[in-house]
């Protein structure tokens, strides 16, 4: 949507479009948002769901969100969220949490530049995923990240970057609807505000909705206030537009540590990453053949018994026509080879994926027996100028009971430097990942190159270009998984 009633200038609109385009990494948004498509816009979710290009991609005003933004209180779209425009209530919520947040320094930049950062990969004091693929927090009160489905031979079906590039996912959603296939959709808050009808369709079609931050930054680079705001306002945007308070989130690029996990858990959010990666988001660089090889490698693991005792969660995207076309192409193969293809809530038997109790999701046994919905909520927007979230305690605007904070970790924090290190250590020894993930990073010093996962690797598979770029962590270079 676009806020015509707020009298945005042409240059301001152009700036927003450029920002959105950069975030989506796709030229499709520029073509579809050309001036010829801006004359009129849809007035309902049904209109927005039409596949006709002349209708589905027009800008439009959505009164509830226009009212909310007109009254202030939300961050600037596609910029790092903070509390500069926050309500008194939102600021008080952060203040109540801030004093208990682990003293782990931010690292690098929001764009993923970690040059000059020193971090002990051997001890991994902060369970920093980007460095070691760690998913089991070092702070005892924190829950482990969800990385796989516990049910055998199960594909956890997830799609990141919802509605990006906006409306072009209609044909894909129609396909999923026809296939009676549900997924877990990770929605970016700025996208939800930009394209609210499209966001509402995700819930109304029966998919599980989770948060994917406000503006898609590397989260460990942000301050406490910014981490809180990225999570909180993505939740708030989803609540305002769709009407549900989500209980799960996925860190962009997988970038998370115990400080970020702490803030997320305090807001009632479970951290979800993945065990396998198609790298479909980089289809423009890697090419279709490589992405298809990545899909086929995961299917081969199913055939060789890798998932005989527990399933997987796979990273895929509804980012552009290329990623959605590959998902459509492979879904029948996935469904035929895996015993179940399900959203994350289903494979973890979570029948209440939202704080609101009027929505009941089927458990795994029900879903795999053909009951793919029980009590579906209808997407409902609000234009209340002061929007409060009902968090997991059931209290409006409240936090979860403060987490206990270990004395041992506090001692590590006391020794931390302020140069971007979370541990104060400049050691660069290669450590071992404790998560058993098959999607592995590589570390190299001047003389060594060691894979950090003892689980089966696919790094040497012909044509499977899994590792892109590199992050410099002191003297250690870590091949980056850019997602």
UniProtKB/TrEMBL annotation:
Segments passing through the bilayer: none
Keywords of this entry: Carbohydrate metabolism, Cell membrane, Cell wall, Cell wall biogenesis/degradation, Chitin degradation, Cobalt, Glycoprotein, GPI-anchor, Hydrolase, Lipoprotein, Membrane, Metal-binding, Polysaccharide degradation, Secreted, Signal
Record GO biological process: cell wall organization; chitin catabolic process; fungal-type cell wall biogenesis; polysaccharide catabolic process
Domain of life from the UniProt record: Eukaryota
Topological category with respect to the lipid bilayer: Lipid-anchor; GPI-anchor
One Pfam short name: Polysacc_deac_1
Cofactor: Co(2+)
Record domain NodB homology: where: 153-347
Signal peptide: 1-22
E.C. no: 3.5.1.41
Segments of this protein annotated with the region Disordered: 416-459
A GO CC term attached to the entry: plasma membrane
GO molecular function, one term: metal ion binding
Sequence ranges of Low complexity compositional bias: 416-455
Family statement: Belongs to the polysaccharide deacetylase family.
Protein name listed in UniProt: chitin deacetylase
Native source organism of the sequence: Microbotryum intermedium
Lineage of origin: Eukaryota, Fungi, Dikarya, Basidiomycota, Pucciniomycotina
């Amino acid at each position: 949507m676009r806020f015509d009633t707020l009298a945005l200038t042409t240059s301001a609109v152009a700036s927003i479009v450029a920002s959105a385009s950069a975030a989506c990494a796709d030229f499709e948004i520029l073509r579809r948002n050309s001036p010829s498509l801006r004359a009129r816009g849809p007035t309902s979710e049904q209109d927005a769901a039409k596949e006709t290009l002349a209708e589905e991609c027009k800008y439009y005003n959505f009164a509830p969100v226009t009212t909310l933004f007109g009254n202030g209180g939300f961050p600037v779209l596609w910029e790092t969220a903070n509390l500069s425009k926050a309500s008194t209530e939102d600021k008080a919520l952060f203040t109540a949490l801030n004093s208990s947040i682990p003293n782990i320094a931010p690292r690098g930049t929001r764009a993923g530049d970690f040059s000059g950062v020193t971090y002990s990969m051997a001890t991994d004091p902060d369970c920093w995923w980007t460095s070691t693929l760690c998913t089991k927090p070092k702070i005892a009160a924190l829950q482990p990240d969800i990385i796989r489905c516990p049910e055998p031979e199960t594909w956890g079906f997830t799609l990141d970057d919802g509605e990006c590039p906006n409306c072009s996912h209609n044909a894909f959603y129609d396909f999923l609807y026809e296939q009676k296939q549900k997924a877990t959709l990770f929605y970016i808050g700025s996208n939800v505000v930009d394209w609210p009808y499209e966001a509402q369709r995700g819930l109304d079609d029966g998919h599980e909705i989770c948060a994917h931050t406000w503006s898609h930054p590397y989260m460990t680079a942000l301050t406490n206030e910014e981490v809180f705001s990225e999570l909180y306002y993505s939740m708030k945007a989803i609540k305002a537009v769709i009407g549900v308070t989500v209980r799960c989130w996925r860190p962009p690029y997988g970038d998370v540590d115990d400080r970020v996990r702490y803030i997320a858990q305090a807001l009632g959010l479970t951290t979800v990453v993945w065990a396998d990666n198609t790298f479909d988001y980089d289809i423009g660089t890697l090419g279709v053949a490589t992405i298809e090889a990545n899909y086929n490698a995961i299917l081969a693991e199913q055939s060789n018994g890798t998932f005989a005792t527990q399933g997987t969660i796979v990273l895929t995207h509804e980012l552009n026509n290329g990623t959605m076309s590959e998902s459509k192409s492979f879904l029948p193969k996935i469904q035929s080879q895996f015993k179940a293809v399900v959203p994350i809530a289903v494979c973890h038997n979570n029948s209440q994926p939202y704080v609101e109790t009027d929505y009941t999701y089927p458990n795994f046994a029900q879903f795999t027996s053909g009951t793919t919905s029980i009590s579906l909520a209808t997407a409902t927007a609000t234009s209340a100028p002061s929007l409060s979230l009902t968090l997991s305690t059931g209290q409006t605007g409240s936090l979860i009971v403060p987490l206990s904070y270990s004395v041992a970790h506090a001692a590590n924090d006391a020794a931390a430097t302020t140069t971007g290190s979370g541990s104060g250590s400049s050691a660069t020894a290669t450590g071992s990942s404790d998560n058993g993930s098959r999607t592995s990073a590589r570390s190299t010093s001047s003389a060594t190159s060691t894979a950090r996962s003892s689980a089966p690797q696919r790094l040497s598979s012909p044509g499977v270009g899994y590792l892109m770029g590199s992050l410099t962590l002191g003297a250690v270079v870590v091949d980056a998984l850019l997602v």
